[in-house]
Amino acid sequence: MRRLKVFKSLVIDSVDAITQGSKKYHIWMAFLTFMMLMGMYCYSIQLDQGLSATGMTDRVSWGLYISNFTFLVGVAAAAVMLVMPTYVLKDIDFKQAVLIGEGLAVAALIMCLAFVIADMGGPSVLWHMIPGIGVFNFPNSMLTWDVLVLNGYLFLNITIPFYILFRHYQGKESKASVYVPGAILSVFWAVGIHLVTAFLYQGLQARPFWNNALLGPRFLASAFAAGPALIILVLAIIRTYTAFKIDDKTIKKIAMVVTVAAQINLIMLISELFKEFYAPTHHSESAYYLFFGLHGKTALLPWIWTAIPLNVLATVLLTFHKLRNNFRVLFFSCFILFVAIWIEKGFGLIVPGFIPGPYGKIAEYTPTGIEIGVTLGIWAMGAFVFTILAKTAIGIELGKLRYKK
């Protein structure tokens, strides 16, 4: 009964905290609310017209929604790069940032599920994915495994930080015996969610662009580069506009993680390019379409030739110790690396897998305004959720939110 009273008090205090703030904070929340409303309007049009309102066709059946889903799974998995050193290796330098990283993972997973719902056409078909009711096809379907690992990882990333913050809200220390087993499990689960997503593509023999043994490891490398890069940018904003101070040492350690992951990701990219273009076969046509165009079709060339130079530039800047320790250079490098991997792992991965089709026909894909509106709305929803979680967590960690007995 007492815990319910504490929980009720936490909810009331949290609502009070997130409805108060500076003028910039209210402008930010108003902007996100506007973007979410715009996304809901676009989604209502999609519900009315069906997926014909999007740029997807029977030739290219995965587009902007699944591109963002694939990328955000990696952002969510990247929280493990803070969880493992903090909870398992007891590195105190990561302790300040771990709750922020887990909040980012929760927001990313919510966006992942929202993009899946948008891609399915509407929420009315979600019953197909409920075990025991829908056509779950377990354990043969990789989609089933993806549903399980995503929801399981979301549960872990909600419960572990909630327990820690709930204890801190009461002025008590959290018990390691309670949260450490879950933290250790989340380390393996984070790897699992991204490998399972990679296996979704890798197991499609009819799509040679995805049927690549290097796809799973490259998914992890790109995730551990883009995710921590975003965490660094978020930490920079938090320590600028709030009283929650993040040490330089913490950001520099996360930057080292980003650097190593970016280098590995670039090496794997070079390996894939060598495989596709040194001794090309008819299975290399998707890669040719992506990088050079095919039969006069060049829709993706501006995207991929923006992503590759940004990727290389960011990795080079991060590799040099002196440049990486300059925070202006670091933040710039993290931003362009995040954008580069979003392009490369989004459009650069999903769309070319469908081109050319099984009979050699090329049907290019261009997202419609409806798709873009829904996508921006979902990203705004993720930012809104993260802002609420971060503001509550920071208030508790700073001691501003405390249970009044």
Automatic annotation (TrEMBL):
InterPro entries: DsrP-like (IPR054823), NrfD-like (IPR005614). Keywords: Cell membrane, Membrane, Transmembrane, Transmembrane helix. It is a multi-pass membrane protein. The keyword Nucleus does not apply. It is found in: Cell membrane. The keyword Transmembrane helix applies. It holds the Pfam family NrfD. The chain crosses the membrane at residues 27-46, 66-85, 97-118, 147-166, 178-201, 221-242, 254-274, 300-320, 327-343, 376-396. Signal peptide: none annotated. GO terms for cellular component: plasma membrane. NCBIfam families: DsrP (NF045798). Belongs to the NrfD family. This is Prokaryotic molybdopterin-containing oxidoreductase family, membrane subunit. It comes from Algibacter luteus. The lineage of its organism: Bacteria, Pseudomonadati, Bacteroidota, Flavobacteriia, Flavobacteriales.
